[in-house]
Amino acid sequence: MSRKEEGMYWTMVGELMYQKILNLFEAIEKLPVVSSIRNGLVMTIPIVLIGSFILICKNIPIEEYQSFLSSFGNGVILNIMNYIYDATFGMLAVYIMLAISSVYARDNIELYGSKYGIPLTAVTCFFIFTGVSGNNLKLTSFGALGVFTGIVSAIIPVLFYQYGKNISQKCYYKFSSVGVDSNINKAISEIFPILFIIFPCASINAFVVQGLGYSSFQDFFLQIANLLFSQEGRSFLGGICWVFSTTFLWFLGVHGSNVLEGVAQHLFPSTTVLNVPVISMGGIPHEILTKEFFNIYILMGGCGTSTCLLLAVFFFSKRKSSRGIAKIAAVPILFNVSEILIFGLPIVFNPILFIPFIGVPIIGYCIAYFFVSIGFVPVIMHDIHWTMPIFFSGYFATESYMGAVLQGIILLVGTFIYRPFIRVYDAEKIRIAKNYLQDLIDTLQKNEQINKNIILTQLQDQRGRLAKALLVELKEALKEKKLKLFYQPQHNHSQQCVGAEALLRWENEFLGMIYPPLMIKLAEEAGFLKDLEKFVVVRAVHDMEFINFNRKEPLKSCINVSAITIQDTTFEKFLDEVSKKKSVQKGSICLEITEQTALCCDEDTEAVFARIRKRGFQLAIDDFSMGHTSLKYLQVNQFDMVKLDGTLVKKIMENPRAKEIVSSIIALSHTLGFTVLAEYVETENQRVELEKVGCLNYQGYLYSPAIEFEEFIRYIEKRPEKAGSIK
């Protein structure tokens, strides 16, 4: 095997392994338990942000400000802040436990029939595990120290509730009563599933308390965690183990810092405990690994050294959604609150960002430990709060500018480590988004085929999320006039170009050209389809004015307008304004009415159509066939053109019935005085067959696909103007 072949082989092996890892993480991420943990933690972000904001306000390091808080109104402001903090961060474990269990119950309500059983079970398990029945219950168990217990309490019913439910359903008739309120019966049906779970939990807690001698399961976890980390102790390797463990838990969607808070307090006490007493006695502080060391140098911006991640996204990501999340997360990260970025980007179960998310904090830890150990940067001398922003924290904690300089070095190194992974993540997200886009298009097309209306933005999966994201970008594109009009030429039987259909196109920065019916559907769902169609009219009128300026025979532009829009009185006023501002030549603009089933056949509609035609605009019916709906509109309204249903044109060569229907429409056009145009004409044989039955106007790939305006101008310039129009 040559070196080239060997290189290709290992490249192929690497790509295969990479894809397998992606598939593994994707499969794990789709697990209901994992999804519930991630989404549940997202739901607690408001509580975390409120608590963080209060904490920031409480700990602003200005002596006059702190004095004001303590003295004003006998400390009333400080008391209010404490109340809010205790009700948010002080009860964080409870909120997380309720959020995770509630999310799972909500997403699986069809499976369980109730969304209350699982949260009730989780609450009961949590109180059992925290030792609520004993004398050793501590309120701190409800806060950050109890987060791990809260997550476990939420996961247990998620995993086992269905087993209890299945057993309960077999015996349901024994517990339910005919004629009793259905809510009573539902409540009774939850008894056994709840008992099925809480009895083993109570048994486990009893074993931990009476058999092992701990005060509760919560206390047992903290002691075991302390034991695992105490083997390395407060050493360099112990610090690495701590950084890895907390960051890895964050990657799994678990608040690592809170889960292992008890371990941190035991293994890495604060500077107040380790260094301040030495300083007060006139000694030289020497303890490097204090709690503040990790807060200042490793948790800059939050877990994963999030400030580095934030800067990497700002400078190196090309995706608007990623930069948008970064903008929202910027202020919280300034105060070391990273939840929005971690769950919004997301980092959780993201295989591409796993390496830098774990690696950057460890590398930052090594850099900080090295510079402090050699004396380049002083050890931490003051106990500062974890919400203090970067650079300020480094300066105040060390009483030296070198603390801030060290933070800057770690920030720079970490940002550039994240850089290549952010680029790869962008590319992978675009690939995945294109797959979801195709799924979204397939869903729309399938429902169109069976005439079923579907609300794409209400889909509760990745398709729905993509639809909402596209909707936001479409609004922005319309506002900034980034949408384009393409023109598909129309020819008569003499091969002269006599007009074109104006077709709206949107080229997304990352997803490319968006399927036009999807674009229309999203605008319709969001209620700005009229604005979209008005944009098309204004642009098409402007383009035709430019094209027809020196032409003897004006080209005609056909513009699609929905039936709902054209019947709106405001649209009629809009057309009046357009005709006054622009020199609309009579017959140069033809409004094609789509979705005829929504068109009313009454005197008011006839009057609207008459006024529109009086202003110089022509009217056409799109996708005309010999069905009852199509004929009904010809009976009561005067249209200038009908465009044949594409299925008739495509089948005219092999289906005699299709040919007969087209022939009948042509005959009807002579009687009622309208022009017939065939779309989807792709071959010369089709055109000849259409001409034989009297259809003399064509549009389709035989002549040209839809092309940009500049190309359309070149298209008509190559074809000298002759007398002719759509007739």
Automatic annotation (TrEMBL):
Gene3D superfamilies: EAL domain. SUPFAM superfamilies: EAL domain-like. It comes from Selenobaculum gibii. Keywords: Cell membrane, Membrane, Sugar transport, Transmembrane, Transmembrane helix, Transport. Residues 467-720 form the EAL domain. The keyword Membrane applies. This is EAL domain-containing protein. GO terms for biological process: phosphoenolpyruvate-dependent sugar phosphotransferase system. GO terms for cellular component: plasma membrane. PROSITE patterns: EAL (PS50883), PTS_EIIC_TYPE_3 (PS51105). It is found in: Cell membrane. It is a multi-pass membrane protein.
